[in-house]
UniProtKB/TrEMBL annotation:
The lineage of its organism: Eukaryota, Viridiplantae, Chlorophyta, Mamiellophyceae, Mamiellales. It comes from the Eukaryota. Keywords: Membrane, Transmembrane, Transmembrane helix. The keyword Transmembrane helix applies. The chain crosses the membrane at residues 55-79, 91-116, 136-159. This is Uncharacterized protein.
Length: 161
């Protein structure tokens, strides 16, 4: 789409040059400007089959990384959940913040498992008891989990800028 827009702008530019008689004599019969014509001639010389083959290789690598990273993330966060079960509440929050931040900062790792793990780890029975127990404790644990996950995501966005 951008290439077509670039060519369209070149056509409009060339037609305006011809209309106002500012185009060089040898390029008055051309539809595109000399610069765009030279660029297209250079592109025609490229080995497009080799380019497409390399693009396919890169697509396979990226998709493989996405699948592996997504699977690894879920397994790692499940392992983390088991290990954090016997740790004091405040330390659980600190560890989750650092692990969640690290996960958000790695581009190929999806964010959804971090949110789900936060919802599981930060709202389990020990967290609910820390907020007073019962349904009110669960509501507070959920609210704090949402706030912590939101703060982690915003911190990651700020760090990536």
């Amino acid at each position: 789409i951008l290439c077509a827009l670039y060519a369209l702008i070149s056509v409009v530019n060339q037609r305006i040059r011809v209309a106002f008689n500012t185009a060089p004599n040898q390029s008055k019969s051309k539809w595109l400007t000399d610069k765009v014509t030279d660029q297209l001639n250079e592109v025609y010389k490229w080995d497009w089959s080799r380019i497409m083959i390399n693009i396919h290789y890169w697509v396979v690598v990226v998709i493989a990384l996405q699948v592996v990273a997504g699977s690894f993330t879920v397994v790692f966060l499940s392992y983390l959940r088991v290990k954090l079960a016997a740790i004091p509440v405040a330390l659980v929050y600190v560890i989750f913040v650092f692990v969640g931040l690290a996960m958000f900062l790695i581009p190929i790792i999806p964010g959804l498992p971090v949110y789900l793990t936060g919802g599981i780890i930060l709202t389990d029975q020990s967290m609910v008891r820390a907020f007073g127990g019962g349904s009110a404790g669960f509501a507070w644990a959920c609210t704090v989990a949402v706030g912590v996950c939101f703060a982690i995501k915003l911190a990651a966005v700020v760090m990536q800028q």
